[in-house]
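Appendix B, Record 12. Input sequence as logged:
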Amino acid sequence: MDFFEAQDRARRRTRLLIVYFALAVAGITVAVYLACLITLGVGDASPYAPGRDAGWRLWHPKLFAICAGGTLAVVALGSLYRIATLRAGGRVVAEALGGRLVRPDTRDFHERRLLNVVEEMALASGLPVPPVYVLDAERGINAFAAGFGPHDAVIGVTRGCLELLSRDELQGVIAHEFSHILNGDMRLNLRLIGWVFGILCLAEVGRVLLRTRGRNNPLPLLGLVLLLLGWIGVFFGRLIQAAVSRQREFLADAAAVQFTRNPAGLAGALRKIGGLVYGSRVDNPHALEAAHLFFSSAFTGSRAHWFATHPPLAERIRRLDPSWDGTFPRVSPETVEVVEARAAAPRARVATGAAAAASLAGGAVRGRAVLDQVGRPGPRQVRYAAELRAALPDELLQALQTDTGAQAAVLGLVLSRNPDRRRQERIGLQTRLSAAVEARLSALDPILLELPVGARLAVAQLALPALRTMDGESFRAFRQALRWLITSDRQIDLFEYALERMIERDLEARFGRVRPRPVQYYSLRGLESEAQVLLSALAWLGQRAPDQAARAYAAGWAQLGIDAPPPQLLVWTECGLAAIDRALDRWAEASPALKRRLLAACVEVVAADGWVRVEEAELLRAVADALDCPLPPVLSEPAASGPMQT
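Logged structural output:
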């Protein structure tokens, strides 16, 4: 199943979840009506009392309307309130669960190892490097991913997961969570939290009514009934959680193995959960509403049996390791030193990949292989990410862990390679940067000047976590300096456009408001002119000769599947970067199937000469990122004989 099919499946699950939720609310509404009918019928003064009017009547339209309206109002308002509190994205969930943000410049061994693994997974998958949270109070082995989309996603791990897993096991768990991000599971998970909370609000209303006083007052009894009904509703909400989550965990396990080609790592983490006295338990009171987010079941005992949001542990392990004998290893905090020693070996092996990173940092690949990689990173991308990161100078890596160093690195990536122009740009930046950023830029300038072309976007990705730690004033100054630097030569190249759009989209989730984009377009009607702009721009950027640009444009338009002659190729002035931005914003609201067709058309245009060069691949990644279709690094095919680009 490819990325686009996974996105469609996630949307179908959302519709199915709405049906389940509506049935649960309808059942609760009927139960509330019957409870009110019985409760209000106790007193002789009640208009619904037995023996009044033609005796006991089961159907009272006015009472049903009041009960249905009140129930729907409570559930809807509660759900909307909870979803509104989650608007800031995954960090709200992480903080509610007791998570502590791991700073990019941490020197703790376990935290540094965790950040390295997350960074490698992000580089390999083409996703922004997400913030990482540690649940310090949780001694079990567990993890989660939360957010509305890739640009506001967070990764959270428990203290047990951080300290008790080897690097390979930790990589398997993180790859599992990245698969949830890539498969579009997170938005559904957050909506599910809000809807279950709405049902829980009935119990809160019951508590309020239970405390009312007065002679012959039926409200306390009604409150008790609502309290019970509220918890019954929560019970069905948990069943919905379980129904939605179980199969997704198998799919995420399979995707993680496809990602890393190391089933032993993920199976080892699951075996340790079975052998640890704490298992995967999470004791935070908010864990119940977030049960479906976790890597493994957050509960033990009978509650885990009734609300099994995850498949049985043994079944998951046997799918990964058919030869497993059914025994779990004994795991305890005393084995931390052993795990730490094991974790040092992979780090040493990664360091040997520095030479290989130079060849993988750039290159050309046949165009038709690009589309298949969207949302589907593989072991080559994982190896590339680890080797590239290991090949970067320590001074640069350390600079990327602080906000001043990250700002300097990103700005340094945009500086002109022409010595005279570079000096002029450095002088212009002096009045726009703080002294600290200017000093870091001076120190990093020689390193960035020697950086391979294919490594530039990766360095920008690694800078994102530290850039998120800026305050609002620093962010505004940085954005203004970046915009000035990009436009100072009155032309924007492909890399500058890709870099600025990536930075803007990611930091918008930190300094702006997360705005989930609903699907507005299920057919190409209404998007033809935007497709014309994008394909025309790509044709001119990849092919300077008018006849070659026209052929590339026509080939790309044919991939859209429109049964009509293509509109005329636009001149360059009609498809500038502002027009590209507007077109991408419209296409971001298209269905996954339409996005696939657009990306196929874009690849066809860019690869009209048979190859996708590094600069063109960077632009394709910017287009894919704008469509929320993460494109991993475009690597040279093993059998390709074309020259490597550096």
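The beta strands are 99-101, 132-135, 143-146, 154-158.
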